[in-house]
Amino acid sequence: MRADRLLALMMLLKTRGRMTAERLALELEVSERTIYRDLYALRVAGLPVYTERGRGGGCYLHEDFRAGLTSLTGDELAALFVAGVPSPLRELGLDSPLRGAMLKVAGALPETRRERGSRTAERVHVDTVPWQLPRDPTPHLQTLYTGCVEDRWVDAVFLRVQGIRSRQRVAPLGLVAKVSTWYLVWAGTDGHSRVDPVSRVCEATLDEQRFARPDGFDLAAFWDAWCLRQEASRPRFVAGVRVVAEALGPLRERYRERLTVVGESERGWVPVQLRFAHIYEARERLLALGGAIEVISPPELRLTLAEFAASAASHYGATGRAP
Q1: What are the pLDDT digits (tens) for 33-79?
Q2: What residues form DSSP beta bridges with 194?
Q3: Local structure of residue 160 (DSSP, 8 states)
Q4: HSE, side-chain direction, 13 A CA sphere, residue 247
Q5: Residue 283 burial by Cβ neighbours in a 10 Å radius (0-12, 13-18, 19+)
Q6: I want to staple 120 with a disulfide (CB 3.0 to 4.6 A). Which of 32, 78, 171, 248 is the partner?
Q7: How confident is the model at residue 244 (pLDDT cuts 50, 70, 90)?
């Protein structure tokens, strides 16, 4: 299509600079006459495309039109190249398009600035995947992504509690990757917006019919508001503990906003409060800290920790020898 060819012609001139009509014709697999007609069409449309005859001539865009990329600072280029391909984009199959886009950006840069970006990428690597974080299976992620991009209805089956399957006709409004978990923001035939982990989708079939996206729907704003509601409704379980002074720094780094120091250090122990979603999370996390902490309150948490410790001691014995 001519529109695609015109866009490709613009990208070639923007990324490579001055090119001859012969070279452009080879790249786009058309005749030189077609190239000149396309250049004329671009000029009529108001784009600053020029041609010069003779040695050193060729077809080019005005320098000011290309300044958007060449004016990037060194730090901006370093950040761009170090960012790499996030794991969620690989799962969506967008890693190759992103690499292609990065190559086009690199091709449009002066040699010295291109070297700055590549040097940084060779020396800094950003790994956004946490250690040993379990990943829920998302076999229907690609189908849901297609539905999001093309605004197509999806016939989906969600797996609910106790193995109950719920069949829904959903309008996929967006996908959100939070750490290693994908969430689907969707609206049903009633128009109400909902959120579900993609791992709960056990069946998904694209429909040929398209849905009308709500006017002004902002996925990021919706997600932020939904997260705030989730945080506000989540039960809070506060554990009062004493922490060995030497362990306070690593513990504060690990729990951050969950930890509050509530008193002065006394005989090498610091009183703090730790907040968890529920008693079961508190028990799991605090058991892993061993003798670096002592739980003071509430009594039910002390009791369940003591029961678990006694059970472990009776099972392994004082020597820790295998039965």
Answers
A1: 888 888 888 887 777 888 888 777 888 887 766 555 555 666 666 77
A2: 186
A3: -
A4: 18
A5: buried
A6: 78
A7: very high
Peptide bond into 298 cis (omega under 30): yes
Q: What is the mean pLDDT of the chain?
A: 82
Position of tokens 């106790």?
Answer: 162
The phi and psi torsions of 176 (rounded to 5 degrees) equal -125, 130
3-class DSSP state of 267:
coil
pLDDT in tens, 110-147: 666 667 666 777 777 777 666 655 567 899 999 999 99
Contacts of 293 (CB under 8 A, 6+ apart): 241, 242, 243, 244, 247, 251, 286
Letter for the amino acid at 303?
Answer: L
| pTM greater than 0.70 | no
Virtual torsion, Cα 225, 228, 230, 235, nearest 10 deg:
-160
Q: Is the dihedral of CA 212, 218, 224, 228 positive or negative?
A: negative
Higher pLDDT, 307 or 105: 307
> In this model, does residue 323 exceed pLDDT 50?
no
251 within 8 A of 259, measured Cβ to Cβ? yes
> What contacts 226, CB < 8 A, 6 or more positions away?
185, 195
Asked if pLDDT for residue 208 goes beyond 60, the answer is yes
Q: Which domains does the chain have, with CATH numbers?
A: 2-68 (1.10.10.10), 77-123 (no CATH), 141-232 (2.30.30), 237-316 (3.30.70)
Residue appearing with tokens 């039109």: 65
d(C-alpha 273, C-alpha 205), whole Å: 48
- Match 């829904």 to its residue by tokens: 168
Question: What sign has the CA pseudo-torsion 197, 199, 203, 205?
Answer: positive
Best CA proximity match to 156, nearest among 194, 114, 108, 111: 194
Please count the CA atoms within 13 angstroms of the CA of 321 that sit on its side-chain side. 3
Q: Average pLDDT in the 178-187 region?
A: 90
